[in-house]
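request received
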Amino acid sequence: MDFLDFLLHPLTLVTFFPLMGVLIILFMDKENKTAIRWTALITSLITFGISLWVLMLFNPANPDLQMVVDIPWIEVAGWEITYLMGIDGLSILLVLLTTFLTPISILSTWTAVEERVKEFMIFFLLLEIGMVGVFLSLDLFLFYVFWEFTLVPMYFLIGVWGGPNRVYAAVKFFLYTMAGSILMLLAILWLGISQGTFSVPELVATASIPGNIQIWLFLAFAAAFAIKVPMWPLHSWLPDAHVEAPTAGSVILAGVLLKMGTYGFLRFNLSLFPEASVKLAPWIAVLAVIGILYGAMVSYAQKDVKMLVAYSSVSHLGFVMLGLFAINSQGIEGGILQMINHGISTGALFLVVGMIYERRHTRDMDAFGGLWKVMPVYAAMTLIVVLSSMGLPGLNGFVGEFTILLGAFGSKVLNNPWFAALAAVGVILAAVYLLYMFNKMFMGPVDKDENRRLFDLNLREIVTLVPLLILIFWIGLYPSPFFNLMEASVTKLVESIQVAAMAGLP
Amino acid sequence: MPVSYYFALSAILFTIGALGVLIRRNAIVIFMSIELMLNAANLSFVAFSQLHDTLRGQVLVFFVITVAAAEVAVGLALIVTIFKTKQSINVDVLNELKQ
Amino acid sequence: MFLSEAAASGPTFFYLVPLVVFIPLIGLLTNIIFGKWMGEKAIGWIASLATGLTFLVAVLLGVSLLNHPEQVIVPLVDWISIGELQVQWAFQVDTLSVTMMLVVAGVGTLIHIYSIRYMHEDVRFNGDPGRFKRFFVFMNLFIVTMMVLVSANSYLMLFVGWEGVGLCSYLLIGFWFEKGKDGTGNAQAAKKAFVTNRIGDFGLMIAIFIMFWAFGSLNFDQVFAQSSQAAETVILAITLLMLVGVAGKSAQIPLYVWLPDAMAGPTPVSALIHAATMVTAGVYLITRSYPLYNSAQQVQYIVAMVGGITALLAATIAVGQFDIKKILAYSTISQLGFMVAAVGIGAYAAGMFHLVTHAFFKALLFLGAGSVILGVEHGHHHLEHEGKGENGGEHFDPQDIRNMGGLRTRMKTTFWVYLIGTLALVGIFPFAGFWSKDEILLEEQILDPPVYWILIITVFLTAFYMGRQVLMVFFGKPRSEATAHAKDNPPSITVPLIVLAFFSAVAGILNLPRLHSFTEWLEHTVKSIHPVEFNFLAAVVASIIAISGLFFAWLVYSWRYKKLQELPPAQRPDDPLRQWLGPIFTGMENKWWVDELYWAVILNPYIKLSRFLAEVIDWRFWHDWFHNSVIVRGYNSLARFLSGPFDLGFIDGIANGLASVTVRFAGSLRKVQTGYVRNYALMVLLGVVVIIGYLILR
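response:
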């Protein structure tokens, strides 16, 4: 593959195109904020366009990796690191989600971020590179580079543009994630050195790791991913990071960064350590179910809307984890779809919260009431988002949650319908806390004077939300195109796990 | 003419240049001496190129000339600035490094 | 049977069935998009027209079924397909679903028309005319979701409608979200309805999971086809969990508590959603799942018992209520209990028949109650307008029957239709309720005597509380100024009432004894039902009980009430029964404290637990103490130890020693540093000479 081929390869473009924007912004006058915003927005839109081009090139019927870029990168002492990128049914939706949410988040900062716009946009575009890179890279080493790379822009996004307690939150976010990553790095090094390759597809195909070592490696990888997801009880960084982060940061954090954790489980833990996955699945499911119920209950007791949404993520991602570790097509496909759904719904929730925060500069639910009367458009859109988040049938959340629960209920690996039954209680509790929030903010009388004068959404804000609403309905009513994209890959994954797990049994 | 002559010339030029740098106080003269050293090196390159019958030395000379040109630009700019601040181009005034 | 095969056997309209969902959808989209530029009339009529057209489609489907009574499935598009899980958006047309469609769209159209006028008044009384459009959007949305529910051909699609109607219910109960107790009462009621329904939905969802893993499909046909071979426990679990769903949606014990609160919604909503259609979805679900219930007899008894006890309990509570709509709400719960009891013992035709007649007369009663409320509100506003604000501006409740009385002469049309509705509900010959209730009682008598006796008591109570209501509202003297100034409503309100009254009176002919037209119609779908012959004795017994209930009501609320009026107001009890029954009446008035019980046993502990988890466990222990104290402080003190005693004492000692040596050495070396570039250059030169010298001489 010569250089030009590499440069114009769709995966290279979709990953590194934001760099163009970064370079352009670098040479722009920092006072010219509008131009900087437009540059960032257009760059991210073009990146989204490129990802759609990737989607067109993508062949959903092919379960294997596609559009692979494989370039030798570093060769030291017999083990080689390659620049290996590729896409398959497990990752394509997440790439699309990333490129889709980035322009929306940038649009949401139009008036919210007024200081250091230049640096903000540069970090944001860099973050996009990192996230797409995480989803596309298939070499463990390359993956780790991208994985850690996303920390840096996010650290600054929280630490510079965040709320009053931002430095604490940023440092906590950084350290927490780093702590897990270190263990993963050790596991990566062990794998690479003992197996002689860092390439994931090669490892999946050839590696033979004894069962007890698989478990240790599984746990090391899981440490990094579980913190990122976050799984109960490692979620403590999440409320801090979310509450302090600027709106766009929260959207990306909830929408994409958390998915890096679940994606990691899917791509690495399930594929590389099938035996350990099967063995540990019930334990993961226990944590997932606790997370679902715990997140839902803790959400209910929050006073700050953003906290509520943050804890709801713990609950929702519990569903994703439960689905992934059901290890059947329904569970995993539902889990992947639920990652997308959570990105859309929770992203939209954070946007909605950001919009009211910009107007009132508070997120305390007690400060609101009767907003439906004052801001009908805003209320209607929020309602749809809330309903999608609580999994109302006909909207996206239901399709994901239903397939997950269905998969978990009949999972041969979990082999216990109580997981799904208890998790389904989380669906009830979701209605409790989300409707509590909606009632508190949008219903009831308008009893605060500040709320009487609020103006409804402007055109830009509507434009920010409408694409998300369209997807909410689309996935809810006609999810087949989404399932079709992942079906072949998931089926292959499930089969390979079953084969490997059977082989590993005494 | 044997190549050793060229090397001798080169060595002489280099020595003159080096002495110039060490002895003279005037910044411009020092600067000129540096150019002299560079060109002495160039001469060696060309001579070696001839000796080994390759073009590598000659290619390097081009690099050196380019770098020298850039160096002149920067150096003269520096001297002008120094003159503006110190009203002198005597390098002995410039011993701030000691502090 | 699929569409193509059906089309071959003659002219049919089955392919129109998607329209029952799409017409109201278009209606609501039209109102959302263009409503801004349309007047109230236009909005209301578009919504009504959409529902009316839906009714027309339902009629065409019904006509097609007369020629071709077997079920037809009309697929629309794939929905979810993962491995074995194949679910389509597909419509099932059979006699059962079309019955529901006819009821929903028929009653729905009348209520839509009624609402145009009613909401015109309502939005003005409540001070936000802008909400008129929203109401009709929600109403059309309800028709959409209800049609999805009844026309589904799989449990999953049914579930979409099932939760969808719950959403519409939420939106419409909370329609006046800034009103109610403390300004949040209505919003609370809406939330309560949704969450309680969700608990029911949880049961249904688990039932769906079991079904899928047991039968590999969620389509009705496939599930039923395999149900006969399924293990008994599987069927048992499915049917019991489904009963939980039914209890949520159809307001049965123990989940009925949301329905009375749901009366916070505007009256047409109570009529359409919380009386005629949505709440009957549970009855429909059991009827639809008849092959499952038929193969689980123990569950059938449980279902019947739940229905019977609900009927009785709700009827006792209805006796103690004073809110005209609350009485009707408890009456609805009670009547739903009848239906559930009927379908529980396998009398699906009787249950569905009662569902249909009940839709007519309960919608009529609610709309009549709405008409009464409007009349009284008119009187109230009339007074306020003249500056004679009653009770010194104190809140006046236009729904409290203690404030009413004597409306018979002031609201004539409303009175007559209300009376017809009452007689139909009580089950007096020849009104609709008589036939349907009689059929239920007859079947219970044969199949499940304990439930029969419970229902007989309920029949008495039903007659009593309805008699009480009618007597207190329409007879006697007005007990408030507002009532005295009430006047009847214009035709757009009364005409739908008259139409409904007509059907409430004559709907019995649908399933007259000996003809059994309705039973035979349903038999095409619900294969297990058989016509039951009319039993003259049973009918007479039921009628006597009902009439005696009315008689007692007359004794208490007309005869005794008049005497009480002679007492001075301070000693006068608001209800004669309070005197006689004492604590029992207080219990009935306070709904047997079930809400309080749930609050104490479920809600309060949940709130406390979630606060505890959030504040103590998650925040103070895990977030603050563990992370900020244990980890951070632990790290800090380790760092301090390392930087203090360890670093300063030991490492620094080494470092300092090294440093002082370095300082001394450097002191001697610093003389070399002249600061003249020339000197440095000389050093470089010397260095080079030395290196080159070494290289040459080596």
